[in-house]
Specification:
Elements (H helix, E strand, L loop, with lengths): L9 H14 E2 L2 E2 L6 H18 L2 E4 L5 E5 L6 E6 L13 H15 L8 E6 L13 H7 L4 H5 L10 H7 L9 H7 L3 E9 L4 H5 L3 E7 L1 E10 L3 E2 L11 H19 L9 E3 L3 E4 L5 E2 L2 E10 L2 H21 L3 E10 L2 E2 L2 H15 L4 E4 L4 H5 L5 E6 L15 H24 L1
Helix pairs in contact: 1-3, 3-13, 4-7, 9-10, 11-13
The chain binds zinc ion.
The site of zinc ion (ZN) has 5 residues, from loops.
Length: 425
């Protein structure tokens, strides 16, 4: 095989800056899926893929874009991420993986002969779910886990636009979306690799530029309702109250303690628990709350630990209810099983991260990614670039340039190792 050009981040960084200029306003990135800025970003991307790597770009039945470089065999390696953003989002979330994927294609296209395996670069449609609330839409359709009719046909955005109409506007038909899974299977994918920013503070706190992602955490999300008795804040003595909010507050603190107790010392074994929504009734200053609704979102990479957390939260709710003489009911909102990435590909990622950044720290992803869907149908691995500040879904999302440079080169190296591995099978 002819020689690949050395891995470089230069073109990826300049592409990212160009895209930022094209699709950002004073509040941040506005590439919300199915809207005009997103289409603009995609048109720009398609032209670039055609012109700079000679790729053929097609769209599948779920709206995902596929740029293909045919190889010596039809067996394929897929790279990619998503160009869509939340409203007022950052310049790297999703775009980093797509533009690094384009660099993969440019390097292999420059060989002057077909690559050893076929390469696909994918831009997943509607990863964020920012407008209609269903995230990972395109990748779930490809993975065969999306029931489009049941899950999507009733969704509307804040302006009242129905999702099927927004899809139609983009040439996608809801009743055809299930075809995307068969289209995906026809790609004969042997591996999926994604580069993404961490979106959290872990790598920064470890002073590491690049991380090896072990998988995406499982999620247990539930809604609880504590029911007591509303009463006058002056007339009701403390010992005679049935204060539903105090029970909810005790539950929230118990969940935090549960998370601390079940967390190990390494990123792999850390768990999180969050009470993000609290509503009390009747909700005025002179009333003892008669009812309190509270949400709990728990995440862990290890399914057994996640099950322990759920059991612990149920116990904590019962104890809090008894203490404050109220009743409690708990209803599930969402359950997602942990997705552990492929050990062989993760090994390649580890070697490449070590080569590009000196060491290869391992961590799970708390957020879900398109890679979570892919992990169910094809061997999958992921690389994280440090976020600094360690936040995302905001205009100030950022990564230092040295971290981006090392992460991009690590990703390109991991793809090379994967291509060699798949070609030799
Ligand atoms: Zn993302």
């Amino acid at each position: 095989m002819s020689l690949l050009a050395p891995a470089s981040s230069k073109r990826v960084l300049s592409d990212l800056r160009e895209l930022r200029k094209l699709t950002e306003d004073a509040r941040g990135a506005q590439r919300v899926a199915w809207g005009p800025a997103w289409r603009k970003a995609r048109d720009w991307f398609v032209k670039k893929a055609e012109k700079e790597a000679g790729l053929k770009v097609t769209r599948d039945s779920a709206g995902n874009l596929w740029a293909t470089l045919p190889g010596k065999t039809k067996t394929s390696v897929i790279v990619g991420s998503h160009l869509d953003s939340v409203p007022g989002g950052g310049w790297l979330d999703g775009c980093l993986g797509v533009m690094a994927g384009l660099e993969v294609m440019r390097r292999y296209a420059a060989l002057g002969e077909p690559p050893p395996v076929t390469l696909h670069l994918v831009d997943w449609a509607d990863e964020e779910g920012a407008r209609f609330g269903r995230s990972l839409m395109g990748s779930a359709a490809s993975a065969g886990t999306l029931n489009a009719k049941a899950e999507l046909s009733h969704l509307t955005d804040r302006a009242g636009v129905k999702l099927p109409d927004a899809l139609n506007e983009n040439g996608i038909r809801l009743d055809q979306m299930k075809k995307a899974h068969r289209e995906f299977l026809a790609l004969r994918a042997a591996a999926y690799l994604e580069l993404h920013i961490e979106q959290g503070p872990v790598l920064e706190s470890m002073k590491k530029d690049v991380g090896v992602v072990l998988g995406t955490m499982g999620v247990e999300r539930h809604q609880l309702r504590f029911s007591g008795q509303a009463a006058h804040s002056g007339a009701a003595p403390l010992h005679l109250r049935q204060d539903a909010f105090l029970a909810a507050a005790a539950f929230a603190i118990a969940c935090r303690e549960l998370g601390v107790a079940l967390s190990g010392k390494t990123p792999r074994t850390r768990v999180v628990a969050t009470c993000g929504v609290v509503k009390v009734e009747p909700n005025f200053v002179t009333a003892v709350p008669g009812a309190a609704e509270i949400s709990i979102d728990m995440r862990a990479l290890d399914a057994r630990v996640l099950a322990k957390m759920l059991a612990g939260a149920k116990r904590a709710a019962a104890i809090a209810a008894r203490k404050y003489r109220v009743s409690v009911s708990m209803s599930p909102l969402i359950t997602i099983t942990p997705r552990i990435f492929d050990p062989t590909l993760t090994g390649f990622v580890k070697q490449s991260v070590k080569a590009a950044a000196g060491s290869a720290p391992e961590l799970p992803s708390g957020p879900l990614h398109d890679a979570s869907e892919m992990a169910g149908v094809v061997p999958t691995a992921m690389v994280f670039a440090q976020s600094s500040p360690g936040i995302s879904h905001t205009r100030i999302e950022n990564s230092p340039e040295p971290a981006l440079d090392r992460a991009i080169r690590a990703f390109l190296g991991a793809v090379d190792r994967t291509v060699q591995h798949v070609a030799q099978r």
